[in-house]
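Re: the multi-chain job from yesterday

Posting the exact lines I submitted so nobody has to dig through the queue logs.
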Amino acid sequence: MVRSEPPALALESITCTFPAAARDDQPYTAVREASVRVGKGEFVSLIGPTGCGKSTLLNVAAGLMAPTSGSVLVEGAPLRGLNRDAGYLFQADALIPWRSALDNIAAGLQFHGVDRAERTERAQHWLERVGLAGFGNRYPHQLSGGMRKRVALAQTLILDPKIILMDEPFSALDAQTRELMENELLELWSSDRKSVLFITHDLEEAISLSDRVVVLSAGPAAGPIGEFAIDLARPRDVSEVRMTKRFLELHRKIWELLKAEVLKSHVRQKHA
Amino acid sequence: MSGRSTPSGPLMILYRLVFLLALFAIWHALTESGLLPRFFFGSPLLVLEKAARWFASGKIYKHLAITLLETVLAFGCGTLLGLATGLWLALAPAASSLLDPYIKGANAMPRVILAPIFAVWFGLGILSKVALGITLVFFIVFFNVYQGVKEVSPVVLSNARMLGATRRDLLRHIYLPSATSWVFSSLHTSVGMAFVGAVVGEYLGSAAGVGYLILQAEGAFDINTVFAGILVLTAFALLLDWIVTVTERHLLRWRPTSEGARLSNR
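And the result, structure tokens for all chains:
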């Protein structure tokens, strides 16, 4: 491949094997020889049945977990330790419960040594950007699920990461809030086009958000089995784009591949 | 609201006072009628008179101040020691594993039996009572801090690390606040234990304090003074508990309300 610019993030033949839980068990290989690349400014979704090792791959990309073999390249340079260029939006609630929304958003700046006055001002600005002006003093438990996700989004984006890793960030939200959040994410993303690696098990979400969808096989030993470029025009509205003919075509094509994997994972879980 | 709902606010306070008066009236009736011997059970009127005289003459304040000083010192030192040890052992698995049986053993031992040893080491002054109080407070705080550090959500930790937190940041902004929140929610128990340490220490040998007053009166078979001492201690314990409740409500305001309600109802 001839390319002047290395991809923002490259996972090269990643294998992750976990030691056996009990003595008679076999070691468990979650991911085998998986390679995924995210170009600069590209929005890539990883989709696969539950338990296929999607989160494992994301943790490897974040540097939170070291792969058994394979390497992670950030803009061409091998990753050592935590991925300092990446922001991570977790599936579960990750806000600090004893800090107000504003202090949560400012946390990253505080860890980076920004003084109080400046970080409060910048956090206030981000609070407004995610539509939570006036909620700065609330503690996480006083916010709704959607509001907590917005705080988490601001908390990550305030550090201006080059790469954003997202692990099914909206899976716990109700359908309406979810569409709102997806649209807001697209709007925030389109303003400065960061590289995004987005994990989901929801095909509609994957297609409506991404430039490219990568399908993972059912675990164990999961890996990419197909890639689809999403050529829908931007800017998109996630609920409108779902009615278009091209969307349905793409959906049918990807689902053909994904369906077999979902069934496999279903059968495996039944017999487990 | 249904007609059977519990009466609220001032009315409940009134009922509670009536209940207290009724208790004293029953006590009075039983001892006056001779059903209970006055020598062993005292007389509520004489008990109240004794307590009132203590406050009127000002004699009690010196003793209360000593008991309070012992309680505060035992609570403060015990909490700091427990906090430091808890943080250290929770973050150092090797040391924790080494010391585990010793900590369990020391916690299982009834520590009141240490009082005579502390009296020999530290004399009959306040130090021996503070030492006893510390041994009681330390373990409550220690186990809560240990738990507090272990219970920090791994997602919150990973998130803080991804946001750029160093090991020191994690200790200061994640582990310590989590641990102190557990310490705060055990404030009632630890303040109570510091108080127990002070009074029991005084009772086993001292030269001042409310426990000392009770010990003296008991030696002279003055049962009314013993009851007066118990009454003053109880009132004082309630006051301490109220202060703790107010503090706790302020410090734990970030907690979800169901839990906050549970705490303030204790």
